[in-house]
Amino acid sequence: MGSLGFWRLAQADPGWVAAVDPDGTEHTAGGLLARANRLVHALRALGLRDGDGFCGLVPNGTEGLVLYLAALQAGWYYTPVNWHLTGPEIGYIVGDSEAKAFFVHERYAAEGARAAAALEPHRRFAFGDVEGFRPYGDLVDGHPDTPPGERTNGTTMHYTSGTTGRPKGVRRPLAGIDPDDAAEMLTFLPAMFGITPGEPAGGGYEAHLVTSPSYHTAVSLFGASALHMGHRLVYMDRWDAEGFLRLVQHHRISSTHLVPTHFKRLLGLPQDVRDRYDTSSLKWAIHAAAPCPVPIKQRMLDWWGDCVWEYYAATEGGGAIAGPADWRAHPGTVGKAWPVSELLVVDDDGEPVPAGTHGTIYMRMRGIAFEYKGDREKTEENRLPAKAGAGADAADGRFFTVGDMGYLTEDGFLFLSDRKADMIISGGVNIYPAEIENEITLHPKVADVAVFGVPDEEWGEQVKAVVEPSEDAEPGPALAAEILASLEGRLARMKWPRSIDFIATMPREPNGKLLKRKLRDPYWTGRAGAV
């Protein structure tokens, strides 16, 4: 293999500033490497062996990065935990993942302490002061910072949020290969977007801005692969539109990972604020997580130029990618299949549909398998049945779905319709909320919007919109009428919301994912279920 991968780069240039915490503290590659090595020795002394795992409830920054780097060179699974969860939810993940150690930052002391019972006291460690947890220093002090012996590759095991039931850990078999080679293999992801390596030892400076919580799969994966390519990681603590622009200018950020909600917030800044910051260093602004309205994407391309890339993917693996030129030629597409991935659109019987026909999207990564930890039934449930001679084992790389709907063009470009669970059936007609949301979100007085179906005695379902008004807008009937009037000539009236409610803050995860069930479920209380 070549010279990519954090450990190789750190040995070649230990003085390279590889990460910057949200408070501006800089960390050299050599310092991060020493901390990760020390942690490996400490956890092995605690009894961790190949194939074991541990959890981290930590904010964006180098504490979590060191946990990740330790796991990836010792053959362990690292599970970063969503810090918005409650104590019992966190405890479920710690227990279900069979964690052999649990790390909690004092910022999340309250809920972390509530989850403590999931693991024995001597396996709990705190960054700061957390009741029932030992100081992190008690674990690592006295252990050497020399490279550990018998190094073998580890990986992350993220838990999916899921639409029903408990979240599930997406677990992949470990290859048992050299961690340096495994790290270099990870760089295939940024390479698909044309991202080139930095060369710290030679003065080749690139920087990646982490804008969302690192417990999300895509955020951690893009950040980690950028680091393995020799890019400096710069962490944001929480999203702030002008703060983002300030960091881009100050650190000469070359790559970042965003979601359409971020675009909406950035475009909502006054023009004089946007003009105040130099964003010319951006070479790769990558976005995903939700469909992006065509006009908003076009405005970002007009502002930043052809550095805006899009992709569609899932924690489970596989996906599509759209470069700026592809998107300009096919506005609204999320791209064509990755080189190592395949896409398939099928009907309700699991049979492929013709190009241009809506159906359920399935995908797979060739030669790369996964399972939902401890749930073979769910693993099978989301896969297409194996064809004759294809094998039926969970590790055979069969096509799987996360429930999204869409269609493929003749030349292989994928367009999303919506989540199957979110589709509205009104009078027997399929209505896709994302299409309606894309139109409403363009209104200047709309900061955010969610569209879903609510009960209707005559039609089965009717279209409901919930709107988060912009700061200067007054919610009420007048604004609702203004929003509806703006849809004239742009959206068939059968798709117009029958009513619009207003909300102060839309329930979104920090990665941009809309928690639509929180909005929709109250309307279906007492019903057998949504149509």
Automatic annotation (TrEMBL):
Pfam families found in the cross-reference section: AMP-binding, AMP-binding_C
The keyword Ligase appears for this protein: yes
Domain AMP-dependent synthetase/ligase: 7-372
UniProt keyword Ligase present: yes
InterPro entries in UniProt: AMP-bd_C (IPR025110), AMP-bd_C_sf (IPR045851), AMP-binding_CS (IPR020845), AMP-dep_synth/lig_dom (IPR000873), ANL_N_sf (IPR042099)
Domain AMP-binding enzyme C-terminal, residue spans: 435-513
Bias type Polar residues, positions: 152-164
Disordered: region residues: 148-172
Alphabetical UniProt keywords: Ligase
Domain of life of the native organism: Bacteria
Signal peptide positions on this chain: none
Family according to the record: Belongs to the ATP-dependent AMP-binding enzyme family.
Protein name: Acyl-CoA synthetase
Organism: Actinomadura graeca
